[in-house]
Amino acid sequence: MSNKSATVDAAPAGRKKLLDMNGYQWAVLFAAWLGWGFDVFDGLLFNFVAPNCVPSLLHLQPGSDAAKHATAYWTGAATSILLVGGAIGGIVFGKIADRIGRSRTLMLTILLYSLGTAACAIAPSLPLLLLFRFIASLGIGGEWAAGASLVAEVVPEKRRVEAGALLYTSAPLGLFLAVFVNSLISTVYLADHPETSWRWVLGCGLIPAAFAFFVRTLVKEPEVWEKSAADQRGRIRELFTPKYRMATLSGFLPALTILITWWTCNAFLQVIAADMALATAAREKLSAHDTGALKTAWITLGSSAFNLGGLLGTLLTIPAAKFLGRRTMFGVYFLGSAAALFTAFGHRWEPITQLWLFFPIGVTVFGVFGACTYYLPELFPTRLRATGAGFCYNAGRFITAIGPFIVGSYAKAGPSALGSILHTLCFVAAAPLIGLLFLPWIIETKNRVLEG
Q1: C-beta of residue 359 within 8 angstroms of C-beta of residue 283
Q2: How far is CA 251 from CA 1, 388, 395, in A?
Q3: Are the CB atoms for 390 and 94 separated by under 8 Å?
Q4: What per-residue confidence (pLDDT) applies to 11?
């Protein structure tokens, strides 16, 4: 173990500290927080530009029925590709993080998803864009395991829940940044050039690359990781041995439920907002400029409602986990997710009401993700932590990838893309209800000390 690492991990004595964390521990949390926020930012930029990007690359008239159906289909396909790549990256980089360290892996994954997303901006065709998106998704999936393990191992034991939830608050803020960038470019600077504005939005995916070098210079490897024996660090096959099989199952099942619910609906929230705006604009005979402005405004409203709900829901996991326990917390959030989805999509509401109903979806479907950042690392010892957490969080993406593709394909084949999406998403409420059946297999880790 290096003396430098021991020094930076030590808390200065005799000083009152916010949440019992010293300056370096807060710096580590901030670095991981930014890494995850940029991860979400890069991962979801395509969803915002799809209504312009897909018609442009397929040479379709924006706003036409053909463009709407194609956008729904390719949004689902692109999301599925992102999930498959994220699953591969999450599992591979989780193992790498246990081998070469959390900080190094965090830097590598940030660079990968930044460069991959920026490459999408110059893609001359849809197949090449999807290839670049797959490359970006490898880093997007891998970043989570490194960041979550890093925070869990550096912060004080009694503040792991708070730190994990705070780490995940960067996800809704990453989405806010995506909303802001898309709105600024699409409605202010390039409002009359939808065929090129999407390229500038995706080009902003390069922003996190500069941050990667900040991570490498500031954040050192955790002391507990450096103490672990290099020749005994995690192997994926260990997750299925009798010793860790139940821990793996306990992490995989709730993560799978959360992933299916979140990705299947979130992939289409911006498409729903855009389609409702286009239908309203056609009915009221708005000009092309006003139609574009309305579409961006409603995408911004729906995304903001969802993100605000996600931020609140993430913070609410702190008292829920500490007072109710992890198992009961998952049960409460799964019930809430089902109720929110059925309410939002089980009835055809007025557009503004429909968009505001994204808020309770955010509180439940989005918010419960915050628990994964502290719950999954609690299940495994240091030498296997990033491997185990990365596998549990990301393996479910392979199964989840089917959901957006099915919704997109159904929307493409149906007579109304918007009606087909809303009808299908209503049935997504069944996923968290099925997740309730998994509760007996979830290991309760309340008051458990992180295993070295």
Answers
A1: no
A2: 30, 8, 10
A3: yes
A4: 42
Rounded CA gap, 152 and 160, in Å? 6
Q: Where are the domains of the chain?
A: 21-221+229-441
The mean pLDDT value for 303-330 works out to 93
User: Going by CATH, does the domain composed of 21-221+229-441 fall within 2.30.30.100?
Assistant: no
Q: What is the pLDDT of residues 265-310, one digit of tens each?
A: 877 787 788 888 888 988 888 887 788 888 888 888 998 899 899 9
Contacts of residue 196, Cβ cutoff 8 Å, sequence gap at least 6: 56, 190
From the number of C-beta atoms within 10 Å of its C-beta (0-12, 13-18, 19+), residue 440 rates as exposed
Question: Treating both helix axes as pointing N-terminal to C-terminal, what angle do 326-345 and 288-319 enclose, rounded to 10 degrees?
Answer: 160
CB atoms within 10 A of CB 3: 7
Token pair 């968009």: residue: 355
Could you give the CA distance from residue 345 to residue 354 in angstroms, rounded to a whole number? 8
3-state secondary structure of 55: helix
Q: Read off the pLDDT band of 409 (50, 70, 90).
A: low
pLDDT band at 452 (very low <50, low <70, confident <90, very high): low
Report whether 419 contacts 261 (CB < 8 A): no
**Total-model pTM:** 0.78
Q: How far apart are CA 325 and CA 201, in angstroms?
A: 41
Query: What tens digit of pLDDT does each residue of 213-250 get?
Result: 777 677 888 887 777 655 566 678 899 999 999 999 99
Smallest CA-to-CA distance from 404 within 85, 127, 73 is with 73
Q: How many residues does the chain have?
A: 452
DSSP E strand stretches across 212-282: none
Nearest to 148 by CA among 342, 388, 441: 388
Report CA 387 to chain centroid distance, whole Å: 19
- Which DSSP helix (H) or strand (E) runs through 341? helix 326-345
Give the distance from CA 280 to its chain's centroid.
30
Which residues have C-beta within 8 Å of that of residue 420, sequence separation ≥ 6? 72, 410, 411, 413, 414
The shares of helix, strand and coil residues in the chain, as percent rounded to the nearest 5, are: 85, 0, 15
